[in-house]
Amino acid sequence: MTDMVYREALKAGIREEMLRDERVFLLGEDIGLNWGGAFKVTKGLAEEFGVERVRDTPISENTIVGAAVGASITGMIPVAEIMFGDLITLAMDQVCNQAAKMRYMFGGQTSVPLVLRTVFGGGKNIASHHSQSLEAWFMHTPGLKVAVPAFASDVKGLIKTAIRDPDPVLFAEHKLVYDKKEEVPDEEYLIPFGEAKVRREGADVTIWGTFIMLHKALEVAEELQKEGISVEVIDPRTLVPLDKKTLIESVKKTGRLVLVTEETKTGATTAEIAAIVQEEAFDWLDAPIKRVNAPDTPVPFSPPLENYFIPDNKRIAQAVRDIV
Amino acid sequence: MAVDKKTLKELFTRTLKTRLFEEKVWDLFGENIVPGTLHLCLGQEAVAAGVSVALKDSDWIQSSHRGHGHVVAKGADMSAALAELLGKKTGSCKGKGGSMHITQFDIGVLGATGVVGSGLPIAVGAALSCQMRKTDDVVVCYFGDGASNNGTFGESLNMSSIWKLPLVWIVENNFYAMGTPIKLTCPSSTVAQRAEAYCIPSKVVDGNNTLEVYEAAVEAVKRAREGGGPTLIECQTYRMKGHSRFDPAKYRPQEEADYWLSDEKDAVNVIQKIALEQGAITEKEAEKIREKLQKEVDKAADFAKKSEFPEPEDALDDVYAEAI
Lengths: 324, 324
Fold this sequence. Notes:
The structure holds 2 protein chains of 2 kinds.
Chain A: E1 2-5, H1 6-20, E2 24-28, H2 45-49, E3 54-56, H3 61-72, E4 77-82, H4 92-99, H5 102-105, E5 115-120, H6 135-139, E6 145-147, H7 152-164, E7 169-174, E8 181-184, E9 197-200, E10 205-209, H8 212-225, E11 231-235, E12 238-240, H9 244-254, E13 257-264, H10 269-281, E14 290-294, H11 303-309, H12 313-323
Parallel strand pairs in A: 2-3, 2-4, 4-5, 5-7, 6-7, 10-11, 10-13, 13-14
Antiparallel strand pairs in A: 1-8, 6-12, 9-11
Helix pairs in contact in A: 1-7, 3-4, 8-12, 9-10
Chain B: H1 5-30, H2 45-53, E1 60-62, H3 68-73, H4 78-85, E2 109-111, H5 119-132, E3 139-144, H6 151-162, E4 167-173, E5 176-177, E6 180-181, E7 202-206, H7 210-225, E8 231-236, H8 254-260, H9 267-277, H10 283-306
Parallel strand pairs in B: 1-2, 1-3, 3-4, 4-8, 7-8
Antiparallel strand pairs in B: 5-6
Helix pairs in contact in B: 1-2, 1-9, 1-10, 2-7, 4-10, 5-6
């Protein structure tokens, strides 16, 4: 085991796959020699693998993703990067109409083995065009797989699985977890999609969440332990496929569920999870399901505004207390 | 360019085959057994025929929403193609795609797409893949004059040029984007002029003359195969029918329609006349070829009609490589 930050663990996973399979290549804006990616995830890879395989592109999001699609159906395994999740709006046709639907609308004639890396989330005071959490859009698009790694030990195993997956994977990262450190296994490992991880076991209430909210939920759980409230924390790790089993089993044990994400509330992943739980575990619920999300507004800029927008430990703790 | 008799005969055959296929589709539509809508390439056959004869089997084509001709001219299994148009289980896409997604991957069709302009980025990726895998395969991307006003046109031409990709851009300029005449949407007199901005050589040809299309395609394919980068060929042509199945195309001026739809401009007549004049075929041979092709098309239609529809629950298959 080695202590590693999320960013380095992610890069290590990509690097291992590039060494293993020469079909794997990276493309995106400023991922190469001069910059190494806006969040430095690919720093050093262009030096090691060359500018052909770590390819800087023009600012052309739709064609970056489209090129990944075209390359993937003809024998390559592209890992495309969209610098900010917000900019995926410029590539939605290629992501949702092409990559996601090709296998289906062509009757299974082709696989689309590509990975689309991008980063969601606020907390950096970079306002409405660089801070959104849009993962629900992609969870709502059949044909895509959606990975949401929140911890360093998960991101490495998940990126390797994503690269080997025959289907297109939206690999969502979060700005505030890049520097989170954790022990990461030294030996090669893959984490299967559709397997949630119970990050903390508890008996009284289940918290299900994503990204930085999981880190906050773990802090809250620690706090509430002192009050005698035992919190279980579940990280889905992938939204598609979704591990319902781990979640349902947990709800059956605790009887209470709090859903926490940074998304704006209406139509968020948390709404889907709430619906699933009431369909499949209604009789085990001892209290209404609570949702902790951002308000239905664009992400604001000014620190007090953004701090109000993003759910904090206090709000998460309050939601738990409300139903225990 | 001296074109040998065998090639001239092939150009005639390929043009006629495409015509007879589309006429059959029109007939089946008349029988009211084609679900949904259709974008026929009747009148534009010379483009796909001329380009296809310039390609080798392992070359790729990216089709558009008006794709029947592209696929047939590249050598599609016509039975599977017609079965697809009728929504049958034996269709090349198992009835999941239909007219707008008519695709046969095994003969080098990357896909046909319902989103105008969306094929260009995919062609960039396929060409990048051919280049990175060090094959000598070439990618042809068909699109209409309408698509040249989409952002993907600029993004994709630019990327193909900076990376010197083995790509041939084929603009099928039929002068109407649905019902909007090109003079209302394009300030230049040709689409080809736009290529200059991306340092891509271009040529305007008579898109109703299979030989002219072929000659331009041979030069462009040669340049692409030898590492010389992309070329754009604007093929000026005209729809015999409207945009889609119920469009009588009344918006086109009579004089213009009379010119393009005259016997002298008809794509089959043009190449037949050339082939006859140059002694590549005799009248009798031409008739024999027609009879043989008609039989093939009739047989394919018979197969399509007799084929079963998919089971309703087949709708759930082919979303992912393995059901999740």
